[in-house]
Design goal:
Layout lengths: L1 H18 L3 H24 L1 H20 L1 H26 L2 H23 L5 H22 L1
Helix pairs in contact: 2-3, 2-4, 2-5, 2-6, 4-5, 4-6
Keywords: Membrane, Transmembrane, Transmembrane helix
Length: 147
């Protein structure tokens, strides 16, 4: 498990060197933006009538992040540190430890969410996407109580 975690860290560091992003910026972009956007992409593909609005929202959010990069740098550092503290405390509380919980929350859960969105009946894609986004937000809110 540690080896997989280390491989992900090395891959992130390589992307940081190639893009000029800091590690916290990339981490927050991947886990807090790209993962939920991937869920919205599946929703847009499976429910095409929603696709235009979802694409517009994703482009607007991406443009805002690019335009406000300086502010995002500070926010991403703070949020990254906050997320680390939450994962450390949850790792201790569950007995899983930081590395296992990081892999669970950062790789397994988003991956399973994508898989479920791809196979659920079409009428269930929108409610399930909203539920996943709600759970992600709940995770962040619960973290406030832990740190």
């Amino acid at each position: 498990m540690q080896e997989l975690f280390d491989d992900i860290v090395r891959a992130f560091q390589a992307v940081c060197r190639a893009t000029g992003l800091t590690y916290p910026e990339l981490n927050i972009l991947v886990y807090c933006l790209l993962a939920p956007l991937s869920w919205l992409l599946v929703l847009a593909l499976r429910r095409p009538r929603l696709g235009g609005a979802l694409l517009a929202a994703a482009l607007l959010l991406s443009a805002a992040l690019v335009a406000e990069r300086r502010r995002f740098t500070g926010l991403s550092r703070w949020f990254y540190d906050y997320n680390i503290r939450v994962l450390e405390q949850l790792g201790r509380a569950t007995g899983l430890g930081y590395v296992a919980l990081s892999l669970l929350m950062g790789v397994l859960v988003p991956g399973l969410a994508l898989l479920l969105l791809a196979v659920v009946p079409r009428r269930g894609v929108l409610p399930l996407t909203l539920a996943f986004i709600g759970l992600l937000l709940a995770y962040f809110v619960v973290g406030w109580w832990l740190v």
